[in-house]
Amino acid sequence: MGNVAAVFLFEWKRALTLPRMMWWGVLAAFPVFIVGVIRFTTYQIPPREFWAGMLYALIPMLVSMLGMLLWATPAISAELERRSWVYLTVRPNGGTAVLLGKYLAAVTWVIPPTLIGLSIAVPLADTSDGWRLWWTMARLVCLSCPAYGAVYLLLGTLLPRRALVLAVAYTLIFELIVALVPAVINKLTIQYRLRALLVEWCDLSFPGPGGRPSGVLALIGDDPAWQHVMTLLLLPPVLLLIAVAILRWSEFSTSAESDV
Prior knowledge:
- The protein is mainly alpha-helical.
- It is 77% helix and 0% strand.
- The chain is built from twelve helices and no strands.
- Helix 1 (2-15) crosses helix 6 (94-125), helix 2 runs antiparallel to helix 3 and helix 7 runs antiparallel to helix 9 (190-202).
- The relative contact order is 0.13.
């Protein structure tokens, strides 16, 4: 644990640079900008359901996902590019410490600007139940960031030299396309769980019988909220264990480093 904490602190210190802090500010400002443009350029105040969907798309779906993709995916490839991987792995459990430390740094780096942007965007939207929207989105952010981080870290461990390409392909195919397919396969995506929790926690209703027509149920299911929460909580440790196992079995040689 000491090595993991050391990597975590080192990554945070390295993140406190002007370019990275500017990117941190962009993550926080992006949803605020979009919400502000919509709020002050429309003649009629959008309904509550619109703001719930818009805030979900901007914050747990876009900002959280993009932030984790850029931070967690290159955990191994960044060390290979610096040619420091061989020195890190000679220490006892050095590779595991780097993996877990960078994962924790990524999660704790992305969540704060996301919550800051959310805390400004919700009052700007001026909805009747802003507190409920904020509390729902805050929980979705805290569930989505660790889950996406674990997925992207695993992908980066599988193919470190093509980590970002693999992560972008996964995001486009699974989280943006498969997640919208009204079939059982969409239950394998994180978006399916987050979307179901959004509808449940915000108590959203849709046109149709009982507010939950068959087309909507195909996209969110009818499982209780606690099952989705438990799935999202259990997913990160399981994927991290798989990533650590792959890391221990893999050998990133010096020739692989020079090819990155």
